[in-house]
């Protein structure tokens, strides 16, 4: 092994090490710190207790997303605790000199949607946020990961973070994706292979011809769910698709600075001969529309497959958890999910709420109507996505198809606001977690792509979208 | 941060794998703006039914089991980065979580709050569960200095790993911010060499 060959991850990491602690972590400089209302108040309180300010307020950007209503955002938030928390963010940002895109601001939205669409997220950066889906930004060739509130305070105080260097993993997807298969299916497929904890301790690079062919939105969906297999983060080497996406965005470098930036960004790739601690390769042709049947994102199958049985489990110790999970979902081992009636469909979250997702759904449902049993909600990822959808007339198409287009926020992905799935109900969802109670106490979540969600809304039962596409 | 050196305590067994932070503290309880009181809602939906009555089959409602050590199945604390999970466990009264595997972010959050995550082998974890279920008064000794966890009175013991920097922090009650605040000069020197800060510098001048 030659040490001068570096992975993409190593290049970015090494460029951000301020100093290393002997037998301890590295001190990593953080280029951009994104914050939101839920995981920041205790950090601000911590700074006040220490009597210190935010070290580099211009490197911090705030939005309100987790705990906001997705209806009537022009009115004061009705729920008192939510209103208090959002007001607290506004107050803290003012006090500490931090830019806030709060409710009503044209740039407001889910933190992992607005960073990229505003050109804040750029290749080669380090980005952190008190949210595990910060890995989304890795789609730009960025080291981005979620942190806890003590670490939020640490970054506010010093713009640095103590971090032990993770191990590296590369996942290659080679070949062409079939019609009806989206990047969401790729990542659900990967997690079903690697398992929910299989990448814990690793930073993942996604590579291969199938990944290279994806749009930035589709790449973000993949990097977004890296945490669902335990990975610290996931990233993809930037290329012309990345640079074209960034060019001209609000806060992206302009003119000569942009050219200078692109010249640097072109050096951000894994050197030939660099080694990873672990490497996996999968064939894109083996990937079909996917769906989860259990209560963690690793419990996924091809939509036409049957739920596994205890005999299929790799480890005996997982038996009790597997049975608990199926009991919660109301499924039996060996069942097929196709044609199972579903009353709730949620299209949104930092995984799948970008303009491309809305376009795909609108294009598919145009001229169709949702089944009468279905409650179909679409929550755009940001005010910009919402406005773009309206400018393109997608809102009209969605409305005619019986879908309700809401205002931006995290919404039913985690059920912090009013958008919850009732106890015992199934929800086919484009979000990222199917944990017990995630979408509301007793709610039963099945994770899918936006196309599978749209197809299920139309038929009112779990549907293999390829059958409708080919019809 | 409170110091951690050594404890001897009975334990609460929770032999479920992949316990995610949404189970430890559901999102609807994350509206608080202080760190206090999360223990009341620890494992809320496993612990109480929808009428807020305690579920008798959940271990925290079983009067036979109590103590400062939580023993859980592998991949504990996966999912969301919410530090509220570590706060809830600590606020409830636990000082140690023993499992055969921890999710990264949870582990970091726990260490930042003086809650010690102790990673043991699968077989040792199985032995610990057996002893606790056989005798609810089983005492576990967790010694951070020696990096050992021992089933008291049996001689059954295992050594555990911990980052030496984090160990020093826990034993002395230091936190990372105390350390980083002393690095200001190095951080400012780094900023002068940063490619990113150079790339966006123009924009920032315009904004200012």
UniProtKB/TrEMBL annotation, chain A:
Residues reported in the UniProt entry to bind [4Fe-4S] cluster: 350, 410, 413
Any GO BP annotation: L-leucine biosynthetic process
Gene field: leuC
Residue ranges of the TM segments: none
Domain of life: Bacteria
Keywords associated with the record: 4Fe-4S, Amino-acid biosynthesis, Branched-chain amino acid biosynthesis, Iron, Iron-sulfur, Leucine biosynthesis, Lyase, Metal-binding
Catalysed conversion reaction: (2R,3S)-3-isopropylmalate = (2S)-2-isopropylmalate
Cofactor: [4Fe-4S] cluster
Primary enzyme class: lyase
Any GO MF annotation of the entry: 3-isopropylmalate dehydratase activity
Enzyme Commission number(s) from the entry: 4.2.1.33
Pathway stated in the Swiss-Prot or TrEMBL entry: Amino-acid biosynthesis; L-leucine biosynthesis; L-leucine from 3-methyl-2-oxobutanoate: step 2/4
InterPro entries in alphabetical order: 3-IsopropMal_deHydase_lsu, Acnase/IPM_dHydase_lsu_aba_1/3, Acoase/IPM_deHydtase_lsu_aba, Aconitase_4Fe-4S_BS, Aconitase_4Fe-4S_dom, IPM_dehydratase_rel_enz, IPMI_cat
Purpose: Catalyzes the isomerization between 2-isopropylmalate and 3-isopropylmalate, via the formation of 2-isopropylmaleate.
Bound cofactor: record note: Binds 1 [4Fe-4S] cluster per subunit.
Organism: Adhaeribacter aerolatus
Name of this protein: 3-isopropylmalate dehydratase large subunit
Family: Belongs to the aconitase/IPM isomerase family. LeuC type 1 subfamily.
Record's keyword annotation contains Metal-binding: yes
UniProtKB/TrEMBL annotation, chain B:
Highest rank taxon of the organism: Bacteria
CDD domains associated with the record: IPMI_Swivel
EC number(s) recorded for this UniProt protein: 4.2.1.33
GO cellular component, one term: 3-isopropylmalate dehydratase complex
GO biological process, one term: L-leucine biosynthetic process
GO molecular function, one term: 3-isopropylmalate dehydratase activity
PANTHER family: 3-ISOPROPYLMALATE DEHYDRATASE SMALL SUBUNIT (PTHR43345:SF5), 3-ISOPROPYLMALATE DEHYDRATASE SMALL SUBUNIT 2-RELATED-RELATED (PTHR43345)
Assigned protein family: Belongs to the LeuD family. LeuD type 1 subfamily.
NCBIfam families, per database record: leuD, PRK01641.1
Protein name, UniProt field: 3-isopropylmalate dehydratase small subunit
Organism: Adhaeribacter aerolatus
Lineage: Bacteria, Pseudomonadati, Bacteroidota, Cytophagia, Cytophagales
């Amino acid at each position: 092994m030659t040490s001068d060959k570096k992975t993409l991850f190593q290049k970015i990491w090494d460029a951000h090490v301020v100093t290393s602690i002997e037998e301890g972590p590295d001190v990593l400089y953080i280029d951009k710190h994104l914050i939101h209302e839920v995981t920041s108040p205790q950090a601000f309180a911590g700074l006040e207790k220490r009597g210190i300010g935010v070290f580099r307020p211009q490197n911090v950007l705030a939005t309100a997303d987790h705990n906001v209503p997705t209806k009537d955002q022009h009115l004061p938030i009705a729920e008192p605790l939510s209103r208090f928390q959002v007001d607290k963010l506004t107050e803290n940002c003012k006090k500490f000199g931090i830019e806030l895109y709060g409710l009503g601001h044209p740039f407001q939205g889910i933190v992992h949607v607005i960073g990229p669409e505003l050109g804040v997220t750029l290749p080669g950066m380090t980005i952190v946020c008190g949210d595990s889906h910060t890995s989304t930004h890795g789609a730009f060739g960025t080291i981005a990961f979620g942190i806890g509130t003590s670490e939020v305070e640490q970054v506010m105080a010093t713009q640095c973070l103590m971090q032990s260097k993770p191990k590296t993993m590369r996942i290659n997807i080679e070949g062409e994706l079939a019609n009806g298969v989206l990047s969401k299916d790729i990542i659900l497929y990967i997690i079903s292979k690697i398992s929910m904890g299989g990448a814990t301790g690793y930073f993942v690079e996604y590579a291969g011809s199938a990944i290279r062919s994806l749009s930035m939105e589709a790449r973000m969906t993949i990097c977004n769910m890296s945490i669902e297999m335990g990975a610290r983060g996931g990233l993809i080497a930037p290329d012309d698709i990345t640079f074209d996406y960034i060019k001209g965005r609000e806060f992206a470098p302009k003119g000569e600075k942009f050219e200078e930036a692109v010249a640097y960004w072109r050096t951000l790739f894994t050197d030939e001969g660099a080694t990873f601690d672990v490497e996996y390769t999968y064939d894109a042709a083996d990937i079909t529309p996917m769906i989860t049947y259990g209560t963690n994102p690793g419990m996924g199958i091809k939509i036409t497959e049957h739920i596994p049985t205890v005999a299929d489990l790799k480890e005996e110790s997982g038996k009790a958890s597997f049975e608990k999970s199926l009991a919660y979902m109301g499924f039996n081992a060996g069942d097929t999910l196709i044609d199972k009636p579903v009353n709730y469909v949620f299209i949104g979250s930092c995984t799948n709420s970008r303009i491309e997702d809305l376009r795909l759904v609108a294009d598919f449902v145009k001229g169709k109507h949702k089944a009468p049993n279905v409650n179909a909600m679409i929550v755009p990822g940001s005010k910009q996505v919402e406005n773009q959808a309206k400018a393109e007339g997608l809102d009209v198409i969605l409305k005619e198809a019986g879908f309700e287009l809401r205002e931006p926020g995290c919404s039913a992905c985690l059920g912090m606001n009013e958008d919850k799935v009732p106890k015992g109900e199934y929800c086919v969802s484009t979000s990222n977690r199917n944990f017990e109670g995630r979408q509301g106490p007793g709610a039963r979540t099945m994770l899918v792509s936006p196309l599978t969600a749209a197809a299920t809304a139309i038929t009112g039962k779990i549907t293999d979208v390829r059958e409708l596409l080919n019809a | 941060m409170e110091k951690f050196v050594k404890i001897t305590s009975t334990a609460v067994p929770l032999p479920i794998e992949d316990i995610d932070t949404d189970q430890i503290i559901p999102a609807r309880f994350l509206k608080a703006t202080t760190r206090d009181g999360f223990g009341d809602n620890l494992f809320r939906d496993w612990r109480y039914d929808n009428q807020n009555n305690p579920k008798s089959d959940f271990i925290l409602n079983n009067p036979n089991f109590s103590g400062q050590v939580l023993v859980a199945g592998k991949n504990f604390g996966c999912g969301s980065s919410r530090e509220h999970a570590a706060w809830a466990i600590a606020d409830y009264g636990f000082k140690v979580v023993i499992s055969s595997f921890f999710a990264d972010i949870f582990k970091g959050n726990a260490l930042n709050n003086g809650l010690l995550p102790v990673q043991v082998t699968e077989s040792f974890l199985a032995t610990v569960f057996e002893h606790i279920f056989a005798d609810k008064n089983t005492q576990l000794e967790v010694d951070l200095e020696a990096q050992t966890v021992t089933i008291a009175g049996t001689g059954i013991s295992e050594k555990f790993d911990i980052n030496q920097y984090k160990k020093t922090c826990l034993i002395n009650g230091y936190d990372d911010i105390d350390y980083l605040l002393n690095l200001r000069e190095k951080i400012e020197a780094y900023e002068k060499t940063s490619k990113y800060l150079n790339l966006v510098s123009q924009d920032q001048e315009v904004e200012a």
